[in-house]
Amino acid sequence: MDWIDILLKVIYALVMVAVVMTIAGYSVLAERKIASWIQGRVGPNRTALPGLSALPVIGPMLVKLGIWQPLADGVKFLFKEDPIPGHVKKFYYVLAPMISLAPALITMVVLPFGVYYVDGQAMPLVLANVDIGILFILAVSSLGVYGIILAGWASNSKYPFLGGIRASAQMISYELAMGLALLPVFMWFAPETGGSLNLFNLVQAQGNHMWGVLPAWTIFYQPLGALIFLVSLFAETNRAPFDMPESETDLVAGFNTEYGAFKFGLFFLGEYTHIIIGSGVFVTLFLGGWNLPWITMPAGILGAALSILVFLGKTCALIFLFIWVRWTLPRFRYDQVMTLGWKKLLPLAVANFVLYLIIIALIEG
After folding, report:
1. Which of the four pLDDT bands, split at 50, 70 and 90, describes residue 88?
2. HSE-CB for 316 with a 13 A CA cutoff
3. Residues 4, 293 contacting (CB under 8 angstroms)
4. Which of the ends of the chain has fewer CB neighbours closer than 10 A, N or C?
């Protein structure tokens, strides 16, 4: 690999970070708008950008949609006074938000988001097309919880410490079920993928059809596995009804009680980045990635652009589900979260794994 290839990879990485950060910013706006819609309110509709907001018809429409609100929120987080409390462990207190955000950004390196065809051969749109893609994502994404644990400990007060403990217990409780839900997926598609853990090959394998009619998306073959993975994903991202590490009703704000301004913004950004990448992983594993039923992507730039749009559309639908669930379901109690993880999801994941082990053995036998 020469320096031009390295430079291109760096540019691609910066573009991807910019795109994910933009989606994260507008996910916050979507959350506020959808929450207001569910609660019968209006939501952000006042923030205007000098010049552009004065344009006839389009300007007022963009203001009412709240398009400029993420920009105002970002500027506020950047320039707001950011004091450090005197009782915290300062080095780790500052380090924790960065550790919380970094794993989410690293995992997108191996997540394929589209395809383009050269001489009839499918090529992935991904920064690193590695054969251990899903292992890399599971290993790196699980490091994000260390940022929360570190924040709870470094804040040197009771509520953040309890929030950090809850985050670690929750991660351990749902990580096993999540991993077990994935094993049958890669075993099922092993003839098409050659037994590798490559995510691009998995999506391409889902481009076929069952009996020439039903899309060969994993969710149709393994609906229980998809449900287990989705519930575990909610728990891993600490989203309601699994937001035990924050839980305003009994822990004030949990692990981020002592944080404000830019450092709080990093935690906030990290949570939404985890949701975006987690939604992308679910689309890749269970919803056919960029594949559409009965439609073959054309060759060239048009096909590549369409594949990216399809992937983004499915990912945005998953993000909407995250928001919808948060503003619809009440928060679980802590004992209910633990019971669901250990006594419900884990046995179901084991049963699902054994069932598909038998089915695959019968099919191949």
Report:
1. confident
2. 12
3. no
4. C
What does the pLDDT look like over 37-71, one tens digit per residue? 888 888 888 888 887 777 888 888 888 888 888 88
Amino acid at 340: L
- For the range 220-227, what are the long-range contacts, defined as Cβ-Cβ under 8 Å and sequence gap of 24 or more? 221/188, 222/184, 222/185, 222/188, 222/286, 222/352, 222/356, 224/348, 224/352, 225/181, 225/182, 225/184, 225/185, 225/286, 225/349, 225/352, 225/356, 226/181, 226/282, 226/286
For the whole model, what pTM was predicted?
Answer: 0.88
* Count of CA atoms in the C-beta half-sphere (13 A) of 49: 17
In terms of Cα–Cα distance, which of 184, 204, 45, 51 is closest to 115?
204
**Which of 149, 333, 101, 141 has its CA nearest to residue 254?**
149
**Cβ pair 66, 33 in contact under 8 A:** yes
The candidate with the shortest Cα–Cα distance to 186, out of 174, 201, 176, is 201
